[in-house]
Amino acid sequence: MTWDAHANKLTNISADQWRHGLGEPLMSDIDRDRCPDAQALMEHAASRTGLDDFGDPARNLGLGMLTRSITEESWAGMTPRSRVLAIDYLSHLLENRLRMAADRKAHPQIASEAITRPLIVVGPPRSGSTLLHNLLSLDPDSMAPEHWLCSEPSPPPALGKPSPARLESANRQMTTLFGLIPDIFVTHPYMIEEGAGSLAECGSDIMSLVFTSQQLWCFWGGETYRRFLLDADHTAALSFHREFLQAAQWRIPGKHWALKGSDHMLWLRELARLYPDATLVWTHRDLAQQLGSLASVQSILRGLHGRPVTPEARRSQGRKAIDLQHAAIEKAMRSRDAIGEERFVDVSYHDLLADPVASVRRIYEKSGRAVSQEHEQRIRRWLADHHQTKHGVHRHSPEEFGMDGEEINTRFAAYRDRFGFGFGVRPELMSGQ
Q: How far is the CA of 88 from the CAs of 65, 76, 251, 302, in angstroms?
């Protein structure tokens, strides 16, 4: 079947027709011995919720490509427990979609919410984007999505504070899924103290609800799903991103969004069209550190297959991480040319560590804002209380993933020439740019 034919088939899927913690027994209508296809998963979610509207059918493409990729490239290597966790996770995402669509019907005012002048961190993973996102979120006039809201998005926050049961459900899902790979909490230390109250990402958390996420590729996807992420038009999936933000900000006036998603590099053009007044913040880091950390995190995530990740598997995943990162950066640079330099502000991870407040000020100046005294005080207090190694050191080295500095500098030459970052190479200062 051709790509177009397969895409057309998937976008026309519809279900004929709750909430549960990850790891609990599944309904008998899901076959655990094979990966369910998109149709089966959607029917399963519909039967559990009594709802049948998943929103725009074009948003089903990612689910179809992911289940196809899992079936053909990952399923045979997954343990029975990891298969159950995967099916349950995908089912829960679909149930959330159904409930959000029902909320939107019950409260049509949500669709009138305008998303104006958001700050969106779009830099690659492990480039300081999480740290920067946290600092931007400390502005009293900003909003930032949290994990619990992405895990349990219905009903919208305007209808009441989340109940203890709702927060516990979100925490349970996080800890059960990542229980197979506890090292992930060292690489994401904010999850340890804040749990489901920690900040969420656009890609890993919001866009996962429409199955368009690098995280899902790291979890269970293969080459089929990788090609989908790089080659497909993601306009339909991003329209869900806007709907998510509309529901989350409904009846909360006077705030702007502080968002973060390394996945946005894969669909920068679509993102810029959707949010024409957004300030796009591209974070950068020495590639020896950034790519080494990325390869390490992604190899940890492969542990969700349920088996130990051998040194050989880590090296293999490291090569895949670099391949996808290179393709994403090349695509993002082409998109940036089309969007226009005036929409972007560049932030060095190394500058950010040296003077966090100055880096935030540069972003605010670019977006026509000013950092308030309260915001600055909050940043300084937060930094004093959140040392990066507080819960352990994320140890990794480029060598363990077979990274050769000269080869990477040659491969990433266009990026290095444009921004000054390479393997063991970085500008002395970006703050004056």
A: 18, 18, 32, 17
In this predicted structure, the answer to whether residue 89 has a pLDDT above a threshold of 60 is yes
Could you tell me if 260 and 202 are in contact, meaning their C-beta atoms sit under 8 angstroms apart? Answer: yes
Q: Which residue has the tokens 């996102």?
A: 133
**In this structure, are residues 240 and 210 in contact, taking their beta carbons and an 8 Å threshold?**
yes
From start to end of 207-297, where are the E strands? 256-260, 279-284
Asked if residue 297 has pLDDT above 70, the reply is yes
104 membership: H or E segment, kind and range = helix 80-106
- Distance between CA atoms of 64 and 46, rounded to whole angstroms? 17
pLDDT the model gives residue 25: 41
The phi-psi region of residue 106 (left if phi > 0; otherwise alpha if psi is between -120 and 50; otherwise beta) is alpha
Dist. CA 368–CA 13, nearest whole Å: 44
Strand order in the sheet with 119-121: 142-143, 256-260, 119-121, 279-284, 344-348
- Other beta carbons less than 10 A from residue 343's beta carbon: 17
**DSSP-derived secondary structure for 1-55:** --HHHHHHHHHT---------TTSPPPTTS-TTS---HHHHHHHHHHHHT----S
Structural domains in the chain? Answer: 3-419 (3.40.50.300)
pLDDT tens by residue, 25-49:
444 466 777 899 999 999 999 999 9
Burial class, 368, CB count within 10 angstroms (exposed 0-12 / middle 13-18 / buried 19+) = exposed
- Tokens at residue 298, please? 């992604």
pTM score, two decimals? 0.88
Lowest mean pLDDT among 19-33, 75-89, 113-127, 351-365: 19-33
